Amino acid sequence: MLASIELAPADFPRAFSRSFTAARAHLLCGGRRVRARLALQAASALGLSAADAIALAASVELLHNASLIHDDLQDREAERRGVAAVWAAYGEDVAICAGDLLISAAYGVLASFSKPPLLPSLLSLVHQRTSDVIHGQCSDLATRGSQGVDFATYRQIVVAKSGALLSLPLELAFIAAGESEGVSQARQAAADFAIGYQIVDDINDVERDAHASPPCLNALLLLRASSSAEVAQRQARELALHHLRLAATTAAGLPRGSGRQLQEFASQLAQLL
Which residues, 6 or more positions from 98, have their beta carbon under 8 angstroms from its beta carbon? Predict the structure, then answer.
């Protein structure tokens, strides 16, 4: 779906566009397409056409992948999904351009949406959630190595950085279907899922994050500051389970079964703890 989207101008030879080549290579290197799957399931449940569902799904997934390219560059992560990250394979300048290209494509793909009067609302929401992600990323970078970060700040950063693009597919589906009553509930479910997911990720990456320079923001490291390693591990697991269960319950209550995919993701992740 994503690799087939036109990323290069028709009159510009693809062979000479390193940003296009890098962006396409990144899209082809795998991934679970979580955000696309959330959009497709919600859109189907709400009665949208397949073409409109694909447009919404592609838009959010392109934004997410743009953020991954830029994140890898800022975090100096040399690999993504088992292959060289874009900046490591093509250089930093190309990585910036490739990420920007995917952001532009995320807006461009919405041009195919079948109900033009709804486009202003859809485009405005895409911009709002993109802004949230940028704010979250900047806050994350600003707190790295800081000794004064509390768990409330951690939650705020995670909800902005990760929750925004997890709620966006559901929010877009509701707006596209002309149903607004589920938007706030979808945002809450996505926020809890994002926190639970990030804590699980932090548990798995704690040693790497601890030895980064400066250390990365990590829930388990925050808890270790006031507890033993064993107690912190248990607290992190309990917090992750708490938020994942909240996410599953809230998603299950979304109108017309539109949160079923998010409910399944949250339940599956909780079972791994």
Answer: 19, 20, 22, 23, 26, 69, 86, 90
Tokens encoding 268: 């599956």
DSSP letter string, 197-246: HHHHHHHHHHHHHHTSSSPPP-HHHHHHTTS-HHHHHHHHHHHHHHHHHH
* DSSP secondary structure letter of residue 180: -
Return d(Cα 258, Cα 87) in angstroms, integer: 37
**CA 231 and chain centroid, separation:** 30
pTM of the model as a whole: 0.92
Question: Computed from CA positions of residues 4, 128, 39, 205, in that sequence, does the dihedral angle turn out positive or negative?
Answer: positive
**What are residue 146's phi and psi, to 5 degrees?**
-80, 145
The Cα–Cα gap between 53 and 126 comes to: 15
The answer to whether 109 touches 135, Cβ cutoff 8 Å, is no
**Segment 133-161, tens digit of pLDDT:** 999 999 999 988 777 788 899 999 999 99
